[in-house]
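Hi there,

I know you've been waiting on this one. I reran it after we fixed the sequence typo, so this is the corrected version. Both the input and the resulting structure follow.
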Amino acid sequence: MLLYLLREKKLSADRLGDLLWKESGLLGVSGVSPDMRDLLASPDPRARDAVEMFVYRVTDFVGALTAALGGIDGLVFTAGIGEHAAPVRERVCRNLAWLGLELDDDANRAHRTRISTPASKVSAWVIPTDEEGMIARHVVEVLQISE
C-alpha cells in the first residue's frame, strides 16, 4: 500500500508522513477527530463507527495475545484512552467476557484501580502511566547523566 501511494499516486514522503501520522487512525475513520473524548461525545455515526472499530481492534489483539499466551490472569488499561474512557473499557471487557472477565460497572465508571468483580476469573485494572517520566529516565540512563 505504501509503495502504491509513493509510486502510483506520486505522494511525496512528507505527504505520506502527514497521511499516516495526522490523517489516519481515529480521525481517518471518523472524519471528526483523533480524540476519543470527542468521538464518544459526538452524535455523528462516523464517530460511533470509529469507536467501535477501536474497541474491535483492542478486543482482537487481546484475544490473539491470550491465545498465544495460553490465557491471561489480568488485563491492564493504561494511557489516555485506557485511563480515561470508561465506555471503551466497558465495551472491551464485555467483548472479553468469554475469558471469564466480569466487569464491575460502578468501579469502571468511578475509574477505580480494579474494575473487575472479585469473582472475575480474569482481573481488569486501570493503571496510570507516566510516559514522559519513563522516557526521561531512560534517556538519563542511556546518556549516563548524573541526576
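Quick highlight: The chain has a mean pLDDT of 91.

Best,
R. S.
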